[in-house]
Amino acid sequence: MGVIDDYIKSCPKSHQEKLIEIYGIIKKAAPMADEKISWAMPTFYLNGNLVHFAMGKHHIGLYPGASGVEHFLDRLDDYKHSKGAIQFPLDKPLPKKLITDIVKFRVKENK
Q1: CATH of 3-109 among 3.40.50.2000, 3.90.1150.200, 3.30.1220.10, 2.60.40.1120
Q2: Quick check: 36 and 76 in contact, CB under 8 A?
């Protein structure tokens, strides 16, 4: 069991399936990244923070930093987002391709 698994298990059951899913997507896109908890959120780290994710009341938040949001603005119309965060509603499927692309972008950016 890792620290991210512990985080997911501590969350309400209503969120765990989506948290497990986004964890798997990120892990597959950045298998070389280290995993830790930072800012009380699951974090993938490779030459600096790549992305964080966390549960919200009605969403899963992805935190790829300002550059990770800005680079993909044209693909974020369906999601609430801010300078460094994207919200994926719990009642909709996670956009696997988008999440993968964001993580891979951040890996390249952190090289």
Answers
A1: 3.90.1150.200
A2: no
